[in-house]
Amino acid sequence: MKLGCCYFPEHWPEEMWADDARRMREMGLSLVRIGEFAWSRIEPEPGRFDWGWLDRAIETLADAGLTIMLCTPTATPPKWLVDSMPDMVAIDEQGRPRGFGSRRHYCFSHQGYREQSRRITRALAERYGEHRAITAWQTDNEYGCHDTVLSFSDAAAEAFRAWCAARYGTVEALNTAWGNVFWSMEYRSFAEIDPPHLTVTEANPSHWLDYRRFASDQVVSFNAAQVAILRDLSPGRDVTHNFMGFFTEFDHHDVGRDLDVATWDSYPLGFLEQFWFSEEEKTAYLRQGHPDIAAFHHDLYRGCSDGRWGIIEQQPGPVNWARFNPAPLDGMVALWTLEAMAHGAEFVSYFRWRQAPFAQEQMHAGLLRPDSADAPAADEARMVADVIGEIGPQEIAKAKVALVFSYDAAWVYGIQPQGQSFRYLELVYEWYSALRRRGLDVDIVSVDAALDGYSAVFVPTLPNISPAWIKDIEELTCPILIGPRSGSKTHNLTIPEGLAPGELRKLVPITVTRVESLRDGVVGEGDGWTISRWIEEVETDLSPELALKDGRGVVFARDNIRYCAAWPDRSLLDLLVERIAGEAGLDLMDLPEGIRIRRTASHIFAFNYAAHDIDVSALGLGEPVVGSAHMAPAATVIWTIL
Amino acid sequence: MKLGCCYFPEHWPEEMWADDARRMREMGLSLVRIGEFAWSRIEPEPGRFDWGWLDRAIETLADAGLTIMLCTPTATPPKWLVDSMPDMVAIDEQGRPRGFGSRRHYCFSHQGYREQSRRITRALAERYGEHRAITAWQTDNEYGCHDTVLSFSDAAAEAFRAWCAARYGTVEALNTAWGNVFWSMEYRSFAEIDPPHLTVTEANPSHWLDYRRFASDQVVSFNAAQVAILRDLSPGRDVTHNFMGFFTEFDHHDVGRDLDVATWDSYPLGFLEQFWFSEEEKTAYLRQGHPDIAAFHHDLYRGCSDGRWGIIEQQPGPVNWARFNPAPLDGMVALWTLEAMAHGAEFVSYFRWRQAPFAQEQMHAGLLRPDSADAPAADEARMVADVIGEIGPQEIAKAKVALVFSYDAAWVYGIQPQGQSFRYLELVYEWYSALRRRGLDVDIVSVDAALDGYSAVFVPTLPNISPAWIKDIEELTCPILIGPRSGSKTHNLTIPEGLAPGELRKLVPITVTRVESLRDGVVGEGDGWTISRWIEEVETDLSPELALKDGRGVVFARDNIRYCAAWPDRSLLDLLVERIAGEAGLDLMDLPEGIRIRRTASHIFAFNYAAHDIDVSALGLGEPVVGSAHMAPAATVIWTIL
Amino acid sequence: MKLGCCYFPEHWPEEMWADDARRMREMGLSLVRIGEFAWSRIEPEPGRFDWGWLDRAIETLADAGLTIMLCTPTATPPKWLVDSMPDMVAIDEQGRPRGFGSRRHYCFSHQGYREQSRRITRALAERYGEHRAITAWQTDNEYGCHDTVLSFSDAAAEAFRAWCAARYGTVEALNTAWGNVFWSMEYRSFAEIDPPHLTVTEANPSHWLDYRRFASDQVVSFNAAQVAILRDLSPGRDVTHNFMGFFTEFDHHDVGRDLDVATWDSYPLGFLEQFWFSEEEKTAYLRQGHPDIAAFHHDLYRGCSDGRWGIIEQQPGPVNWARFNPAPLDGMVALWTLEAMAHGAEFVSYFRWRQAPFAQEQMHAGLLRPDSADAPAADEARMVADVIGEIGPQEIAKAKVALVFSYDAAWVYGIQPQGQSFRYLELVYEWYSALRRRGLDVDIVSVDAALDGYSAVFVPTLPNISPAWIKDIEELTCPILIGPRSGSKTHNLTIPEGLAPGELRKLVPITVTRVESLRDGVVGEGDGWTISRWIEEVETDLSPELALKDGRGVVFARDNIRYCAAWPDRSLLDLLVERIAGEAGLDLMDLPEGIRIRRTASHIFAFNYAAHDIDVSALGLGEPVVGSAHMAPAATVIWTIL
Ligand SMILES: [Zn+2]
Ligand SMILES: [Zn+2]
Ligand SMILES: [Zn+2]
Prior knowledge:
The structure is a homotrimer. Helices cover 32% and strands 18% of the residues of chain A. By secondary structure, the first copy, chain A, is α/β, with parallel strands linked by helices. Chain A has four domains: 1-148 and 219-259, TIM Barrel, CATH 3.20.20.80; 155-206, no CATH class; 401-584, 3-Layer(aba) Sandwich (Rossmann fold); 595-640, Golgi alpha-mannosidase II (Immunoglobulin-like, Sandwich), CATH 2.60.40. In chain A, strands 1-2-3-4-5-6-7-8 form an eight-stranded parallel barrel, surrounded by four helices. A seven-stranded mixed beta sheet of chain A has the order 10-9-11-12-18-17-16. The model of chain A has no long low-confidence stretch (mean pLDDT 98). At the A-B interface, helix 8 and strand 13 of A face helix 2, helix 4 and helix 11 of B. The complex binds zinc ion (3 copies). Chains A, B, C: Residues 399-586 form the Beta-galactosidase trimerisation domain. Chains A, B, C: Residues 6-386 form the Glycoside hydrolase family 42 N-terminal domain. Chains A, B, C: It comes from Erythrobacter longus.
């Protein structure tokens, strides 16, 4: 695994570049990402390119022996470009233009901006596409960041109408698919269709779902246009894009298909603070991040691009954008880096080389402080470089457990939660966490992924199930656990004929006749476990495998397939994981709270996410090759697989 | 009492209609409401009517022996109509148009849309006005739903200016009435007046109050225009409109005056979740609704239309629109239906016949599931039909207790709460609840209602009191309890000469010299009771009937009239109800928590809102004719009045 | 000290004026403020002035022996004026116009309105500038109230561009100063610059800081234009403007420089409710206000205008604008008034004479009730007038302790809090409170103020420190305590070369290498004290004076200067105040909770803010000249300094 960093030569005097490059190498880094937001320096005026500084920066880095990932700068079109076509900006759901002054101020559907995006990509690729040091490209930056996937501009409306026409052929077909008869919402032509915002009350959920799919497709085609140019003009280089954490606004499997390598931007402390974790978790893991945050994304994004992935932005210290911004414990940066290696990362690149003293991210730490002294992360990077040297390159094998993830599902529940605590990402994360707490390695896969070869398959929920997917599942013999609301919707977000679980009824003969969403604090009591948030009434000849004390069935099984008709608590998840592991012949571990395990083909890694010492000798993994079984907070320990 | 349902033939294949109608009859239903949102099917293109399907639907239902309530479809103008005059939509308080894509996308003040509303009403009335099966009409649907009474469009501004001119004659009169001198807000002509939104800080409360009155009047006249056409072209049929729960945006007494029958849409579980109830109440009554929600509205709306009323939409299972959507306990649908009967409903119609598998309300239960099987409510409807058969039609008598309700009051306190916990609806509801907890039947009446004949009168608060009302009250000899802030405002929301309680001082010689609103948790301690939220300083020669421990008077009485100068807690309300009942010769009952009682002319009903069994034998009402005195959760029991 | 009131003759029938004036005098008042919002009465139509009523009002008041403060009415331009140039209104951050219908509906940058402001000021000054009774002028009213300092109008954008050009000279200089290279935010000309709102994510903090400075400068120049006219046409009269509480949207030191007297509007109960105080404090001081609220502003605004200051609006009873509006305890109005005297006020004027029965502030108490009877505050005013007579005029001396306050700092932390609980005003207030709890008198001074002569100097935080300030500090020998984040930013809100604390490193040789913001509930434990919210990692050869139990240094000292590298709790502040007082030879008092002390040149005042009796005999101040050492709630006691 390579180490790297994100570097912005345009932020620093040219005199500093060579020494920066030298220090990168000294620190054990071999990859550098540049160019991300540099449009105003590359093309300071319409059509006038200033390549000089970038030529020199690339040479300097290359001369130091660094390989370079070059970015297209399309996340930050300069002011002159925006002024030349003011309608290129996105329009927010409230109808306001999202103007110049920060970044991502463009609408994915604007044809003029798409032309500009291709033009600047082509200009960069023509100049540097065959440069010896350029080994990879990043398209744009963090598609969708700051809520920029959805736009409600005229350009978007126009493109959406065309998308609908292409999808449905006739407006009658669309009216039927969406159920537009419901409130006299029928259209006479595609031209009558608007985006689903600023309606008096909620718009038709089918309308919203198609708008989300359309918006995702716009990201895909925007990206694909850059990729095509890069492949053409820069053959043999990897193309990537950097995904974000807990972010489902576009379909990353779809974008991933056009990439060679999926990368993501890993900020565990910020993610802990900003998402649904409890106050207790936010305090317990204040300076570590919750132990499954990074791993979850590693396994998710590894499934987005044929297994090749990396971290292009790794948090090296406090950040600037969360409500509160503590510093990582000593050792966490190394832990996060090594954990990525254990999950098969090709590289981990720190964001950023040196903390910038100006502008929006001046409070975001780097490997260097703004005064160029080493920040604490620098030594951790060096330490990791040593470990990499010691244990050598790591191969990873297919995991024994698969977990199915669907962006479409995230949209469905976002549009129609039916109970405000039904959060798709949280449900999936809880299931993933239940597996990881017992030491299992997991592949998070798309709905299209082949599932044969896995010892167990977990589907936290999948609202819209196709006959083809059922056929694939039918052929599996391993234990499969499928969660609530699965099969409850058609492809167009309507209720399937014969009710939920729709196509799934072929495998598990049950009918969900009624559902309840439950307010916080209301639970259904099982034997040592509870359900909350969501419970279904099931009609079936099966007798439930697990039921509430009041007799209501919760888990129903036929053959190798279980269906869980409620939102399970951690105890119920533990129970199900144990039963399934028993059936699948999977070894479970009893891990102390805060410890996580991950295996490569050759090594076993353990990570201590707790803020206190933990001795893991009892795991019986023998003598470590790196670290000690008596683990300090934020420690990593590595054993060879015997 | 008739049972019925809401049916949307346009949502289902024509082949299903006859069987649906047959099953309705089998289930004991005799009334069906149709046509509510069908404009796009009735008039698919401007001026081209497609009556065929509706003709056939009406015949099919009529042939099955059902009587029909037909609706005007004006809540959902089709897209082609909106596109033909885009300024017909309302403008929200933030200045944004409220566009097509859901429902209620029109401004009540738009003259063009008013013309369309009359045109489509006339077209329907001409075609079906004399049809044998059409026994009733519903105008539009749920006026004001989704916050649609207020609009800030140009059409509304124009209409408001005319309304002001009509009301005040001269702009000088308006300036004086509103106190516009205050911040140089004086107008030189009516043309200078704008709606009171988007001001730098709050607009003049008098301005707001008149805007609310104007907006309410616009609803009244919009409705009246449809009613006039229906009366003309469909003689002998009842005209109704369906009101909502906890909704005070227009004056329902005013709209009710133009109707034959008031109807309302009863969703007790959703209302519990969405309104001010405590966490404890929301949990205790999760699947029942708070025990006074339905009754409160029955008694309120019965007072809006000369006593004739019904439920046109009764919740039959989980709904889709609350934050959380649990299912009713078994028996609750029957309980709700029978409780409506006990309050004098002419009909209860379930919303809806069959759950729609598509569009916005696909998660809203019906009597049938989307797959046409019976939903749980179906059997409860059958059971209720049996009970109706057993005990026969119920007459109700005037209650012994009147509670005065004023929409104007709701607006006054909404505009000028003075303390953020002063909520008019909550105050009235608490007083109503205090009466119901002791087994009293209550009429909720308007300020104009004749009060003679009642044994006791409760006025939770009435800010603006006219001399005429005082004269009426003066003639009463029964005990009267009048709550805080009564008489504190003139008709224009200014402070009356001589201070609060204004005209009321003629009856109770007190002067409110100063008021306090109190933050949550701050109380004034009485002897076994407290006050909170609001307390007044009273200057008077009377000695208080009840005072705080610190000596501050809270209840002041002269002759038969008491004034309560604070927001009372439940204990103080109980104490006052007991004293007044003693004076009025009213029998109070000691009801277990969760039990409610209601009498018709011939029967006594008891309802168990608790989630556990309760034995009510101790009430000594003898042998029930329906049900058992050992009441299960959600049980109803009925005795004959001896 | 004079007493006075705010009077609106235009609100009352002319017949009442003479008696009102007579009663003011009887109550002990000698100053009356008028004219504040009277534009529509002064100039009812464009260019037509109606001076008659105002001439008569002024004569009536003058004849009664009252001196008059006359206001320019520019906070409330009439409707005809707004209609004549609709673009004069401010545009809010969301892009919406802030229209007519309340007050402050103008943009400070609109040239047309500036011309109108000068025109009406000149008209008033020409007519009354030399009137015998006019002794003072107030410009406008409460600049910035209702969030009106910032506007995003075209006029503001245009003015901002000019401001930038004047400040930076070249756009390249601006690009460099702001770090616009960061996200390709570079401008090619000043004309390309927009206000920093409606950006996709946060705009550049340097952009925001300059926008805030620009907006503050617009207030300064708007005010200065009125002042110039008044000085010209009304020589010898004091010019003032009324500031507000806890309000930092413009630089009051800058505005104050153009005034003769700073005044402020003191509403302690509303401020307690609306600001950051804990639930416990809000309950304990419900009817008193927190004991440091009024004093904090007295000392702050005294520092804004060369020591001359007064209260022009003193809360006399419940107000209308807080979430909850309780009444002051009996005695509080007198306490507040006498406390102002103890801090050197030239006058205290109650808002308002008589409660208005109409419009927005009808629930705001006055000295008289709307029915003209005395409100409770009237007697308290009389009592204060007596005390003033008894103890005579009070001189105040420079305090021994200085606390440095910076509006620029408030903007910096508002723009870039880095942790959401880092609130500048709260930090400063806590430090001020720590001093007051030990009986110290404090001068709150600007960054430019001369600090020599003080026995101790406290700088809660000062992000941007100039070499000149360092030089001034260097010359001081008294103990100085400087708080976290000081010196952490350059003048343009970037990180200084050599890191925080920037220039301060010359005095205290430390480097802040990393900072953490901490979520609520997370603390660092010291010995009997804690830190929270914010902590810095410090690199230094100094050994810390105080450290956390884990060894992390918190307080670092060299010579007479201490730096506190965290947000201290009250215990740590107490400890630091004790140490510094010891070093500075300051006497500390042990004051019971709720008691505050303040000295004039001749007297010592004690104020009981608690809601219960407190005996302060133990303070050993001897026999009071006013009041008793056994203090009732809201009591004031005064001793002569021996
Ligand atoms: Zn990033
Ligand atoms: Zn409805
Ligand atoms: Zn004011």
